Amino acid sequence: MTESYIIFGALETLTYLGVGCFVAVWLWRELVVDGLRQDFFNLRAELFDLAMKGELSFSDPAYSRLRTHLNMGIRFAHQISFIQLIFALFAGTRPAANKEFRVLAAWEEDVRVLPEQTQERLFKIRSGITFAIGKSLALGSPLLVTLLILFAVVSVCRLAITSVLANFVKLIPGIELLEAQAVLTESSDELSGEGGKRLAFT
Length: 202
Description:
With 202 residues, this protein is an all-alpha fold. 86% of the residues lie in helices and 0% in strands. It has helices at 2-52, 61-75, 82-91, 98-112, 116-140, 142-171, 175-201. The chain is flat, with a radius of gyration of 30 Å. The chain has seven helices and no strands. Helix 2 (61-75) crosses helix 4 and helix 5 packs across helix 6 (142-171).
């Protein structure tokens, strides 16, 4: 009886943990998608402000195409995932993917005819779209989240070690003297080499 209770309790605990993990991942995924949509909304508002200020027309292809791109991102934000990225990488090698590349190239051509300042702001919005998608992929994938945490830890440790070494080196006496001796030795070698050459020519 005791062993049965232990097994039943372990299975019950694992079940609760599994359900809890599933709910936590699902809720986290929803938060990531909502954050991505909000980023798209903010970028679309920034694009709208450019047109309102008269920096480009609402009928300009550079405006309409980028706005359509943002609207599609808002609509299908829930479909953007690490798995879709893998499929996109494979699809990018197929001829059908040339259509998407041509659309982006056509938008860039439309932007190039606008004033330089407007170009910079439009390309900044376009870069913001890329960053928002990348952030969503990184935060929405457990694997990428783990890699992101490891990268952050390694970066912080590297900066900390560099700072500690820099301060430690300052405490070592005679470092500047060794550096000066090395410079003097190199200078002496160069002078000796030049003197040898002069003797050879004479």
